[in-house]
From TrEMBL:
It is found in: Cell membrane. It comes from Anabas testudineus (Climbing perch). Residues 39-313 form the G-protein coupled receptors family 1 profile domain. GO terms for molecular function: G protein-coupled receptor activity; odorant binding; olfactory receptor activity. The chain crosses the membrane at residues 23-49, 56-76, 96-118, 139-161, 189-214, 262-281, 293-315. Its main location: membrane. This is G-protein coupled receptors family 1 profile domain-containing protein.
């Protein structure tokens, strides 16, 4: 009977001083979860409701924020139950399912950011062709690929895990992620190779594509002013001052557009890449990371990133910020009168 239970249930051993602070943990995590749902949902609703936000960039942002809601829902309800329970356990099939959702959404995050970087590149380098290139059909195809490709790859990896014999039934984390790799009796070469393939395909290649597109955007925004000034220098004097003035305005417009739209995406990319790097190094390579530090970093991963996305897009994206300001002003006006 005990052997059957051990073969079925996995113990989550990453919690610190749970017997002392279980209610504090629960209260903090429940509050954060409500904030994540509310903040992300507000911006998603704004994008859905307002027609001027029905552009590829904002659609991709809405998809990214929806990912944050699903990502949090995959972790927080089970985590809340564990905080209040005497035993922190999870069945192995449910553990695999949680890991499937976790890494499917992580992979789609990189692909969505890659789609957003391509949209920004087309918008800045080919502004007149942008509506024809980034059509509604193209946006839908990119969204479908961003969600289905990682899901299919992670599903294939999870199928490999179902046939692996387990000798260890204790995870060092507080939810199921790459740490299930350490449960195997014998390390599977197929799983290891496929894991590297997934890391390259879902994270590294999209990351390189994003860096390439943003580098091109910076080069274009720099060269645009030089090109216009060169043309100005080749014209006669009456047109010279006018064209120089236009070149300054043009270069400023391009640089402002690049900064306003690309900076939030880069901040989100850097933030998410750091957490994925941590997940890979400390878990997959089984580094001797202190339990308290591991617990704190895990809490940061599941709280900081889902809250960071709506805040950065709400503050840095001009159109979204404008609608949020109107809502806040309307609420203040109602309170006053």
């Amino acid at each position: 009977m005990d052997d059957n239970l051990n073969a079925t249930y996995i113990t989550l051993a990453g919690f610190v001083e749970l017997h002392k602070y279980r209610y504090l943990y629960f209260l903090v995590m429940f509050t954060v979860y409500i904030l994540i749902i509310c903040c992300n949902s507000v911006i998603i609703c704004l994008i859905v409701i307002h027609r001027n936000l029905h552009e590829p960039m904002y659609i991709f942002i809405a998809a990214l924020l929806l990912n944050s809601v699903l990502y949090s829902t995959n972790i927080y309800p089970k985590l809340s139950v564990d905080f209040l329970s005497e035993k922190q356990i999870i069945t192995y099939p449910l553990c695999l399912f949680q890991a499937f959702i976790y890494y499917s959404l992580a992979g789609s995050e990189f692909l969505l950011l890659a789609a957003m970087s391509y949209d920004r590149y087309v918008s800045i380098s080919k502004p007149l062709q942008h509506p024809t290139i980034m059509r509604k059909t193209t946006v839908i195809i990119l969204l479908v690929l961003a969600w289905t490709v990682p899901a299919c790859e992670v599903a294939a990896c999870i199928v490999l895990y179902t046939d692996i014999k387990l000798c260890n039934f204790t995870l060092k984390g507080i939810f199921c992620n790459n740490s299930i790799y350490s449960l195997q009796c014998v390390r599977s070469v197929v799983v290891s190779v496929f894991g590297v393939f997934m890391l390259l395909n879902m994270a590294l290649f999209p990351l390189l594509f994003i860096l390439f597109t943003y580098t091109r955007i910076l080069i274009i925004s720099y060269r645009s002013s030089k090109t216009v000034r060169r043309k100005a220098a080749q014209t006669c004097l009456p047109h010279l001052l006018v064209l120089i003035n236009l070149s300054c305005l043009s270069s400023k417009t391009v640089r402002r557009k690049a900064a306003q739209t690309c900076l939030p995406h880069l901040l989100v990319l850097i933030n998410f890449s750091c957490f994925i790097t941590y997940d890979t190094i400390t878990v997959r390579l089984e580094s001797d990371f202190p339990k308290v530090a591991r617990f704190i970093m895990t809490l940061l991963i599941i709280t900081y990133h889902p809250l960071f996305n709506p805040i950065i897009y709400g503050l840095k994206m001009k159109e979204i910020s404008k609608h949020l300001t109107r809502i806040l002003n309307h609420i203040k006006f109602k309170k006053l009168y």
